[in-house]
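Chapter summary example.
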Amino acid sequence: MFPQQRQSVEIVKFEHVGLYYSSGHAVFYDLNYSFFAGAFYFLTGPSGVGKTSLLKLIYRGLKTSEGKVSVFGKDVNTVGCSELPSFRQRMGLVFQDCRLIDHLSALDNVALALRITGTDTRRSRNYAKELLHWVGLGDHLNSLPPQLSDGQKQRIAIARAVITRPLLLLADEPTGNLDAHSSYRLMSLFEELNKMGTSIILATHNQALVSAFPYVELKLYQGQIQASPAFSNQYRREFY
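The structure predicted for these 240 residues follows.
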């Protein structure tokens, strides 16, 4: 489904990054970490520890208080407002609140992400239809977001995020509104995308999901990243 994009380079690099609330409380301090192209990372930690903030620093939803975040070799703090759309076109973003366009059908919400890149309408809609069938929404192509459940809207948001075949996918609790079977099915989509070279950083509270897949787990704790391997187990086979 996805073309080869593998790169053996740093795709995201944190250098002495600090992020502070107005109260002076540190979300991150002197944070140094590199994310490599083609890798898959789980980002874990309790609520309020900074998972969403870390993702925002990468796509320039937030600016650092100090230090530098480089993405695709560019300091994100130097990306101007006019450059943001083209900068983010190489990313897939999955937000907790979905951010769908209510007056567009499921099909057109997904296709729009590809049309923005210049792909013609017919091809965009064909790709969107394929992905919506993959995530189990083939019977809801023409449904509007307000007519759908939270879990269905989240699956539309995921299809929209991956349709552009991004170099980097940032997913903030993408399975939070899904049942176990749907969560593991979507993980297989992320795995396929990752095998084709897309770097994935997936923030989650779902420790069972983390334990079921053999990817690096990055735990956020007291403003730092603690890396530990997450190995697959017997439960993985039950969902395939």
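To summarize the output: The mean pLDDT is 87.
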